[in-house]
Amino acid sequence: MKILLYNPDNGVTRNFMPHLWMFLLQALTPAGHEVLLIDGNAQPMDEAQIAQYVRDQKIGLVGIGAMTRMIAKAYRMADAIRATGVPVVMGGPHVTEMADEALGRDGGPRHADAVALGEADETWPQIVNDAAQGKLKEVYAPVDVFGQERKPSLQDYPAIPWQSIDLNQFNLVPGAARGMLQKIGEGWGTFRIIPVESGRGCPYGCEFCTVTGFFGDSIRFRTNESVVKELLALKARARSEKGQMAVFFIDDNFAINVKRTKSLLRDIITAGAQVHWVAQISANLLRDEELIDLIAASGGKWIFIGMESVDPANLKDMNKGFNKPEEYAAVLERLAKRNVYAITSFIVGMDNDTTGVAERTLEQVRTWPPGLPIFGLLTPLPGTPLYKRLETAGRLTRPKHWQEFIAFTMAHTPLKMTIEEAHAEVNYGWAHCYSPEAIADAVNSLDDEPLGYRVNIFLARLCFRGIYFPMLGKFAWLKVIAQNRKTIFILVKEAVFGRKKRPQPAAPEPAYAERETAEASGD
Ligand code: B12
Ligand code: SF4
Asked: Does ligand 1 lie within 6 Å of residue 12's CB atom?
C-alpha cells in the first residue's frame, strides 16, 4: 500500500523545519508499504491539488498530523481526500483532545475515518495493518492489556534513515544559488534544520501548555548512543551532499534532568558528533556553569527560553512561578559569555498584564545580551487547564477559535486590558525588536565579537521578523533587505576589508589593593 503523510501549512510562515512525526511514523511503518511525505509549508497545496495527488499516486491511506492552529486546514484537506474514497487517519495534539470533532461525533461534519490518540509510536503499525486489510477502526489509543494509557519508553527508538530519506523539499538554500554555494568552504548547497528528540515529557504543568497532559509527567529518554548515532548520520549526509545542517532538539525541556543532559552532551563531544544545535530549556535549569560549558562545546548555538513574562504575579498565575525574572539577565549573560544566545519568548494577555506591558518587557530586554525576542498572545488550547479555567469563567470569546484560525488574535478577554490593547502590545513588541534600528543595535552590541556572530544575529533577526511580519515571496525579502541596507553594508565591508581597528578602552584604574602594592614596591 502507498501511504501519504501530510502536514498542513500554518498559513503564516514557511516553517523553517520539517515535523518529526512524519519521519518517525515513516520509520515505524511495517515493511512492504511505501511512505510519501508532504509538508505543506515546503510544498503548498490546496484541496484540489491534494485530491489529484492522491489519485495520481494511487495512495491507499493518508495520515494527517496537525497542531490546533492548523486544524481547520487539516480538516479541509482531509475532506478533499476522503471525497476521493481514500481513508484518512488523523493524529497529533489537537485531535487527541478533540477526537469527537474529527470523527463528526459532536454534531459537526466528519473529517477523519480514524484518529490516533496520544503518542502513536506503538499504534501506527497496527493502524497500517488494519488499513491494508480494509479494517480501520475509529479510534486507536495506546493502552496496555488493562486498558491503562501506555507511553512508549524510547529505549528502543527507531533509527530514522536520514542517509536515504528524500529531503529535497526541506532545503532552505534558494534553488538559484545552490550550485554556486556548494563550492564555498565545505559546501552550502543545502542547509536544513532537522528535528531530533532525545526525550519526551515535562512535569511542570504550566497552565497554558498541552505538553504535561499529552506526553505525561513521566519523562522518558532515548539512550545517548542512539542520539549520537543519529547526529553522526546527519553529519555524514550533510558532508556527502556538500551542504550544512543544524539540529533542533525538540524535547520540551532539553535539560529537564541536568545530569542526563550533561552525560549526553559529553558523549556527543567524545564521539565527534557535534553539530550546531538549538534546544528549548527553561531558565531555572540554566544555572549550572558546567552544563553551559557543555552546551557550547557540543555545538549549542541558540536556546529557546519560555520566559513568558517579566511579572512574577503572571508567572505564578500560570503555574510557572519557577521562572524568576530577576535571574533572566544572569542566565542570558552566562550563555552569551560562551557565544550561545537565546530565543526569548513572551506571552501577552495574561491576567495581570496592563497596557504598557510590551515596553516594560523591552526595558528589561534592552539590558540583556542580544537575542531573538518573540511575542505571542495567551491562547487557550483545548485540553489545557487554562482552557478549562477560562471556559468556566465564561471568558472565552471564540471557544472554537481553531475552526477559524486568525493569527495573532485573542480568543478570550484578558482581565486588565481589552483584546485590542493586547494586540497592540504584541505589535509594539515585534515592531520595536525587529525595526532596522533595533536589528542594527543588536549587531552593534556584538562589536567585540568575530564577524560570524554578528552575521548570525543579523540573519536570525531577519528570519524571525517573518514570524510576525509576513515575508513570503521575493518582493517581501527585497524590501527587508533594502530597509536594512546600512547594516548589510557594514557587515559586507567588514567581510571584504577586514575590521577597522577599534579604539582600545583606556586601561582600567588599578584596583585599590594593586595600587597599594605597586606604591609600596616603588613601581
Ligand atoms: C518543535 C515544536 C515546534 C516547532 C515547529 C514544529 C516543527 N516543525 O517541528 C516550532 C518551534 C516552530 C513551534 C512553533 C509553535 N508551536 Co510548537 N512544538 C514543538 C514541540 C516542542 C515538538 C513537536 C514534536 O516534534 N514532538 C515530537 C513528536 C514525536 O510528537 P508529536 O508531533 O506530538 O507526534 C506524535 C503524536 O502526536 C502522534 N502524531 C502526530 N501527528 C500524527 C499524525 C498521524 C497520522 C498519526 C497517526 C499520529 C500522529 O504520533 C507522534 C509519535 O508519537 C511540541 C511539543 C511536543 N513535545 O510535541 C510543541 C507544540 C506542538 N507546539 C505548540 C504550539 C502551540 C506552537 C505555536 C503555536 C506556539 C506559538 N504560540 O507561536 C507555534 C506555531 C508554529 C507554527 N506557526 O506553525 C503546541 C501545540 C498544541 C496544540 N494543541 O496545537 C505544542 C504541543 C507545545 C505546547 N506548548 O503545548 N513548535
Ligand atoms: S516548562 Fe515548557 S514544556 Fe514544560 S509545562 Fe511549562 S511550557 Fe510546557
From this structure: yes
